[in-house]
Specification:
Helix 5 crosses helix 12 and helix 11 packs across helix 12. By secondary structure, this protein is of the alpha/beta class. Helices cover 36% and strands 18% of the residues. Among the domains are: 95 residues, no CATH class; 101 residues, Rossmann fold, CATH 3.40.50.11320. It is globular, with a radius of gyration of 22 Å. It comes from Hibiscus trionum.
C-alpha cells in the first residue's frame, strides 16, 4: 500500500514537472516587455523577452531578449548576437554592457546611444542551456555540453522563435558575436545552410565574428608576439614563450591536468612580467573594465588569469537579480539562486576549443555567405595578428583576390581602424583602441563597422 502511494506521488510529481516546463510557443505579444525598471521614458522601440523550448523531452528552454530597431523595424534586418565563454551571457554581456540599448547604472538604465538597434532588430540569446536564465529541469543537461549540442539547440531555438515572431521569418538575417562565438556561429550557420536545402527558412545574409577563436594554435600563439610588440614581456621571455612552451601547448596541458615543469616556469615568468595590474583584454586603456570579460574563461585558464575590476559587472548582476526586473523580463531562476554573468553549473567540453572552425567559415563562403572577422586591436587574448593571419590564409586557400587593399577606415574625423576585403565576400577589419569586447570600449567605431557590414558597403575611406 505504501509502495503504491509512493508510485502515485511519483507519477503526480512527474506530471507536475511536465506542466511546469511546458512553454507554449505563443504569439510574441505574450513576451512583450511593458517596461524595464529604471528605463528611460518615451522609447521609440519595443522590447520582448522570454523562453523558447528547444527540447521537450529533456525539458530545455533558452532565454532571449529581443529589441526592435529604433526606427522602421519592418524594413530593418534581424541580427542574432551570441557571446562566448563558453558559458557567458549574451544578455548581461552583449545587451547590457556592449551593444544593447541600455546599461545599468545604480537603480536606472542609461541609454546607449550607439546601440546596434539603431541599425537592426537585435536578438540576444543566452546559450548554451544553463547560461543566465536559460535552463533545463534536469541537471544532467548541463553535463558534457559541446559545440554540436549548442549548435543544434541554437538552430531549434531559431526555428521556434520564428513561430513566435512569424513576421520576421523571411527577414534578412545576420549572426554576430565574439570570442568563443567563433565556434558557436560558424557551426550554427552551417546547420542553417544545410537546413535550407530541405526547407528554406533562414534568409542568412552574413556572419560577423569579433576577436574570435577560429584556430586554436594560431590564435593562441599570436599572443607571445603581441605581448612582446607592446612591451609587456622581455626579449628573453619572448624567446622561451615561443620555443620552450607556447601558449597553445600550455592550455592543452592545463586542461589535461598535466602541466609540465617547463611550461609552468614559462607561464610564471610571463605572468610576472605582464603584471596583474594590466588587463589582458585591453592592454592600453586605463578604464574601469568588467570581469564579464571572463567570457573567454577557457582561453585564460585560472592559473594564469588575473582578476579585473568588477565595477561594471556588479551593476549588471545587481540589476538582473532584482525580482522586479526578472518579472518584467518574464524570467525565472531554475536550479540556481542567482543570475550570474558566466554559468557556474555548466560543464562544457572545453577541449572543443582545439577543434578548428576556420574550415567551417570557408565552407560558408563557398556557400555564398559573406563573412566579416574583426578585431579590437588592444586585445592580447585573441590578438588581431592571429585573426589577420587566418583570414589571409583562408582567402588564399579559396582563391579569393583582394578587392579592397589594406587601408585605414574612418569614423567621424578619426581613423576607426584598418581593413582588407577578399573577393567581396571575406573581410577583415580592426577597430582602433578597442578591447576584446569592441562595442564596450569603442561604441561609435563598432557601430560604424556594424552599419557598413549590414549595408554590404566598404568602410568609409574618408571622414
Amino acid at each position: 500500500m505504501c509502495s503504491s502511494s509512493w508510485k502515485t506521488m511519483a507519477v503526480a510529481l512527474a506530471l507536475l514537472l511536465e506542466l511546469c516546463f511546458v512553454i507554449k510557443i505563443e504569439s510574441f505579444l505574450a513576451d512583450r516587455i511593458v517596461r524595464l525598471p529604471g528605463q528611460p521614458f518615451n522609447l521609440s522601440f519595443q522590447q520582448f523577452s522570454g523562453y523558447v523550448p528547444v527540447d521537450y523531452k529533456k525539458h530545455k528552454a533558452l532565454f532571449y531578449y529581443f529589441v526592435e530597431a529604433e526606427t522602421d523595424p519592418a524594413s530593418k534586418p534581424l541580427v542574432l548576437w551570441l557571446n562566448g565563454g563558453p558559458g557567458c551571457s549574451s544578455l548581461g554581456v552583449g545587451a547590457f554592457s556592449e551593444n544593447g540599448p541600455f546599461r545599468p547604472n545604480g537603480g536606472v538604465l542609461v541609454r546607449n546611444y550607439h546601440s546596434w538597434n539603431r541599425e537592426a532588430n537585435m536578438l540576444y540569446l543566452e546559450t548554451p542551456i544553463g547560461v543566465g536564465f536559460s535552463y533545463a529541469t534536469n541537471s544532467s543537461s548541463y553535463v558534457a555540453v559541446d559545440d554540436q549540442t549548442t549548435a543544434r539547440d541554437n538552430l531549434v531555438f531559431l526555428q521556434n522563435w520564428f513561430r513566435k515572431f512569424p513576421n520576421y521569418r523571411h527577414r534578412d538575417l545576420y549572426v554576430t558575436g565574439e570570442s568563443y562565438a567563433g565556434h558557436y556561429i560558424p557551426q550554427l550557420a552551417k546547420l542553417m545552410v544545410e537546413f535550407n536545402k530541405k526547407q528554406n527558412l533562414f534568409n542568412l545574409k552574413g556572419i560577423a565574428l569579433g576577436n574570435p577563436v577560429l584556430e586554436f594554435a594560431t590564435d593562441f600563439n599570436s599572443r607571445a608576439e603581441y605581448f612582446w610588440s607592446h612591451g609587456l614581456i622581455s626579449d628573453s621571455t619572448y624567446k622561451v614563450f615561443t620555443s620552450v612552451c607556447n601558449y597553445s601547448r600550455y592550455v592543452r596541458e592545463y586542461y589535461r591536468d598535466s602541466v609540465s615543469p617547463s611550461c609552468s616556469k614559462v607561464m610564471s615568468q610571463v605572468s610576472r612580467e605582464t603584471s596583474k595590474f594590466v588587463d589582458k583584454y585591453d592592454v592600453t586603456l586605463d578604464v574601469c573594465i568588467s570581469s564579464v570579460l571572463s567570457q573567454s574563461m577557457p582561453i585564460n585558464p585560472q592559473q594564469v588569469s588575473e582578476r579585473v575590476d568588477v565595477c561594471v559587472e556588479d551593476k549588471i548582476v545587481n540589476y538582473l537579480n532584482r525580482k522586479d526586473v526578472q518579472k518584467a523580463l518574464h524570467a525565472r531562476l531554475v536550479g540556481v539562486r542567482r543570475w550570474t554573468v558566466c554559468s557556474n553549473i555548466l560543464d562544457y567540453q572545453v577541449l572543443n576549443l582545439e577543434i578548428p572552425t576556420i574550415s567551417v567559415v570557408g565552407s560558408l563562403i563557398k556557400a555564398g555567405i559573406p563573412v566579416l572577422v574583426y578585431s579590437g586591436d588592444q586585445d592580447s587574448v585573441i590578438p588581431l595578428t592571429g585573426s589577420r593571419t587566418l583570414v589571409s590564409r583562408l582567402a588564399k586557400e579559396l582563391g579569393l583576390e583582394t578587392t579592397v587593399p589594406y587601408r585605414v577606415w574612418f569614423e567621424g574625423k578619426q581613423v576607426g581602424g584598418w581593413t582588407q576585403v577578399y573577393g567581396n565576400i571575406l573581410s577583415f577589419a580592426t577597430i582602433r583602441g578597442a578591447s576584446h569586447e569592441a562595442p564596450f570600449s569603442q561604441p561609435e567605431r563598432s557601430l560604424m563597422l556594424f552599419k557598413s557590414f549590414l549595408e554590404g558597403k566598404p568602410l568609409p575611406e574618408v571622414f
